[in-house]
Amino acid sequence: MKFLSKYAASDILTLELTYKKNASENNRKLKELLVQEQCNFCAYTEKYLDPLDSVEVEHLNSSLKYRDDYYNYYAVIRNANLYKQDEKYVGASFLNSLFFQNAETFSAKIGFRQNTYYEIDEYDNEAVDFIDFLGLNHPTLSEQRSKHIKRLKESFGEAGYSKEDILGFFHRNKDQLSFCTAIEAEFDIEVEGIIRN
């Protein structure tokens, strides 16, 4: 998951923006900055945000809504929120540790293979709970990831693309980088540089 990290130099912190009741312009600006910081990807699904997607400011720990700050905000596709299991994980350890906001810590705790997110350490209940909390392996989301990878594999196979050709394709078509963790695993490539440019 590439879009859960938080940054001390965020414009949201500099501008001291917080989500507010009945403040549509403020909240719109907050959402725009989150989308920009997340490189136009949904934080929970890694789907590239299409102009027709319904995107909203999501409060990761919903119990903090209207009392929270930048470290609890993400831009997500509205339907991704349906997979999140707020009530089941009230007070969960990951809501305090926030391990997922650091890319290196996240990668040390949670892996991805065969279209499935999994805990690196089989005894890491915090990682298991976080995967379940966000619904990272929800059947609908898994199916969308799988279909996207299948379409790309077929297209690249028909074109006879090498790894360099695939990277060139993604440089030209950033909107095809939905589910980038799955893309990296399937094609054995690194797309972070493409995403951040």
What percentage of amino acids are in beta strands?
A: 5-15%
Largest sheet: 2 strands, antiparallel
Q: What's the arrangement of strands in the largest beta sheet?
A: 1-2
Return residue spans where pLDDT drops below 50 for at least 5 consecutive residues: none
Spatial shape: globular
Helix content: 40-55%
Distance between the termini: 18 Å
Number of helices: 9
The H/E string reads HHEEHHEEHHHHH
Structural class: mainly alpha
What gyration radius follows from the Cα positions, in whole Å? 17 Å
Mean pLDDT: 95
Beta-strand segment tally? 4
Considering the chains and any ligands shown, give keywords for the structure.
two-stranded antiparallel ribbon; 9% strand; 42% helix; 9 helices; mainly alpha; 197 residues
Model description:
The protein is mainly α and 197 residues long. 42% of the residues lie in helices and 9% in strands. It has nine helices and four strands. Strands 1-2 form a two-stranded antiparallel sheet. Strands 3-4 form a two-stranded antiparallel ribbon. Strand 3 and strand 4 form a beta hairpin. The two termini are 18 Å apart. 26% of the residues are buried.
